[in-house]
Design a protein that fits this description.
151 residues, alpha+beta, Multidrug-efflux Transporter Regulator, Chain: A, Domain 2, three-stranded antiparallel beta sheet, DNA-bd_dom_put_sf, MerR family transcriptional regulator, MerR-type_HTH_dom
């Protein structure tokens, strides 16, 4: 399954993102899929790694976060722990991250999960969004099963 690729239509159905979102994110180089130039024309294909990145974006956007914050989180995770995306359905690292608003700041920052910072932020009425790649991988796996794609 790790070597399987998905069309834009399949990726949209699996991740619950619209095809227009996928196109925009491709144009903005947020999630750039593998492009297959063989066969008729240019077909775009997404890997499981791409689907995990799309699942993360969809999750964060569904919480009402801005596109910029979602992009910041994805870029942070790719930079700090690129191995998190290597085997999206088999990631058992247990590493947790969070988007949080520190005291006196309006912008959210992405960091490794820190329980004390999270509790302090919540007690002060500031924003905190947990991110666990393993849980997102499980979400992706369930969606693959729902659309009839073997995992």
């Amino acid at each position: 399954m790790e070597g399987r690729f998905f069309t834009s239509t399949e990726a949209a159905e699996i991740t619950r993102c619209s095809r227009r979102q996928l196109q925009y994110w491709r144009e903005q180089e947020i999630v750039v899929p593998t492009v297959n130039t063989t066969g008729k024309g240019r077909n775009v294909y997404y890997s499981l790694t791409d689907l995990l990145a799309l699942t993360l974006m969809e999750y964060l956007l569904s919480l009402g976060l801005s596109f910029e914050v979602c992009q910041l989180a994805l870029n942070f995770l790719r930079a700090v722990e690129p191995k998190l995306f290597e085997h999206p359905l088999h990631n058992k690292s247990g590493r947790r991250f969070m988007l949080w608003q520190s005291a006196g700041e309006e912008a959210l920052r992405c960091t490794e999960f820190d329980e004390q910072k999270a509790i302090a932020a919540i007690q002060d009425g500031r924003a905190i969004v947990p991110i666990q790649i393993e849980a997102l991988g499980k979400r992706l796996e369930k969606r693959l099963q729902l659309v009839g794609t073997p995992s």
